[in-house]
Amino acid sequence: MDAHLMEFLSLLLRWLHVIAGIAWIGSSFYFIWLDNSLEAPPEGSAAKKKGVSGELWAVHGGGFYNPQKYAVAPASLPEKLHWFKWEAYTTWLSGTALLVVVYWLKAGTMMIDGSVANLSVAQAVGIGVASMVGSWFVYDGLCRSPLGKNDALLGAIVFCLIAALAWALGHTLGGRAAFIHVGTSIGTIMAANVFFVIIPGQKKMVDAMRAGQLPDPIYGKRGKQRSVHNNYFTLPVLFIMISNHYASTYSHPQAWAVLVLIMAAAVSIRHFFNRRHKGVIELQYPVLGAVLLGIVAWWTAPRIVPLPPVEGPVTFDRVRGIMGQRCTTCHAPSPTFAGITQPPAGVVLHTPDAIVANAQRIYQQVIVTRIMPLGNVTQITEQERAVIAAWVADGAKAK
Ligand code: HEC
Predict the structure, then answer these.
(1) pLDDT at residue 140 tops 70
(2) Does 373 sit behind a cis peptide bond, omega within 30 degrees of 0 on the bond before it?
(3) How much is the pTM?
């Protein structure tokens, strides 16, 4: 029951997280598009006279819209001003809660991989927390340092540091957890940018206007820089959030480098769209993105680890015995493995029919990607993997 409640909690959190994330990233994409698409009003026009630096016309949902952006601020503050912040906060809060439920509370199976590093639960969770908090302080310090004035150099350094984080996590946590913590670190930077920089800066601008002063443009500039960073972070983070479905990426021997290539492709593709909004078509960026993704596709193609020759005859009984010993603690109608209440992915392996029906999936998980048994908690041997491989090659019959 406890485990079922946890599962249901994770369902609710994941649902909320996706909804809030769509609202946040959707509005972020919209504003970047808006900013990049604005055109300066003609000299002498009414808009120009009241301080509008750019405007555009759009049609959507049966109506016409005419957003205008002011160079620094309008002459007087409107009574009703819309803020965009709860999308970001809700995304981060629900995401972090989900991280706790899915990873930190189950660190033994979800974060620790003995073949990477022999960590204790406290160490694994500690690394997770430190990656998120540390990333923010390093990133924020860089932005505030003199480097913060050089956008291109700053961007390159931030990218290299994230690559270093991917490397470090890849050498301490299990593949999936390493990926997700790179994502939660970037996500933390994004939400903290909103909470600590963008919104406080906007508040200062509004306060200055209420006091009848012209707001200091530094707040707008600083906010804009962080907002642009967030824009480039979105595609990498979104990949990471779905990466746990793609074992070929996170279970690769050099998974961290696979992730770095995918992130570079994502940034390059995002850059193309940002430029295109301004009317500049630079095809080298999507081409670079496609080439990088092509390299990833090739590099992550399954390369079957050589198995030892099978000792003795390959019989179904042996396969069945292996399933019973290594798999059915999780893959049975009532799993006995702590924390697992339902057969994972709906796969049961407790009857001959079920084993035969799942032969190809078993082969995929045990021989090709080798992610099953999960974290090899049930300690399957290479000889046993060889028996399964030979049995499948033989036609996977229940004889
Ligand atoms: C500690 C529990 C555990 C053990 C032991 C275990 N599995 Fe799994 N298995 C899982 C979980 C969790 C998933 C779901 C993974 C996911 O959703 O990506 C899964 C998924 C699967 C899938 C479905 C993957 C797919 O998407 O097609 C297959 C097939 C599978 N396991 C086979 C096996 C075999 C064969 C063994 C034994 C050699 C085994 N598992 C041992 C936990 C376990």
Answers:
(1) yes
(2) yes
(3) 0.78
Amino acid in the structure at residue 100:
V
Give the span between the Cα atoms of 220 and 208, in whole angstroms: 13
Measured in Å, residue 345 CA sits from the centre of ligand 1 at 7
Tokens of 229: 């960073």
Same domain, 191 and 130: yes
pLDDT of residue 364: 92
Whose Cα sits closest to atom 33 in ligand 1? 372
**43 token code pair:** 């000299």
Domain end (from 243, 266, 299): 299
Nearest atom, ligand 1, residue 335 CA: 2
What is the distance between the terminal CA atoms of the chain, rounded to a whole angstrom? 39
Residue 143, in any domain of the structure: yes
Q: What is the pLDDT of residue 277?
A: 83
Q: Are residues 92 and 169 in the same domain?
A: yes
pLDDT tier at 192, thresholds 50, 70, 90: very high
Q: Are residues 132 and 257 in the same domain?
A: yes
Q: Are residues 212 and 336 in the same domain?
A: no
Say if ligand 1 is within 6 A of residue 366 CB. yes
Residue 307 lies in a domain: no
Does residue 158 lie within any of the structural domains?
yes
- Look up tokens 């016309």; give the residue: 57
Contact residues for 203 (Cβ-Cβ < 8 A; gap 6+): none
> Residue 255 corresponds to which amino acid?
A
Instruction: Give 377's contacts (C-beta < 8 A, 6+ positions apart).
Output: 109, 337
* Ligand 1 proximity of 378 Cβ (cutoff 6 Å): yes
Q: Which of 329, 374, 381, 392 to mutate to test the pocket of ligand 1 (most atoms within 8 A of CB)?
A: 374
Q: Is the pLDDT of residue 106 over 60?
A: yes
Encoded tokens for 329: 């603690």
In terms of residue numbers, what domain contains 180?
Answer: 2-299
- Dihedral sign computed on CA atoms, order 69, 36, 88, 5: positive
Q: Is 328 in the pocket of ligand 1 (CB under 6 A)?
A: no
Residue 347 beta carbon below 6 angstroms from any ligand 1 atom: yes
Residue at 309 is within a domain: no
Place of tokens 């290539």: 261
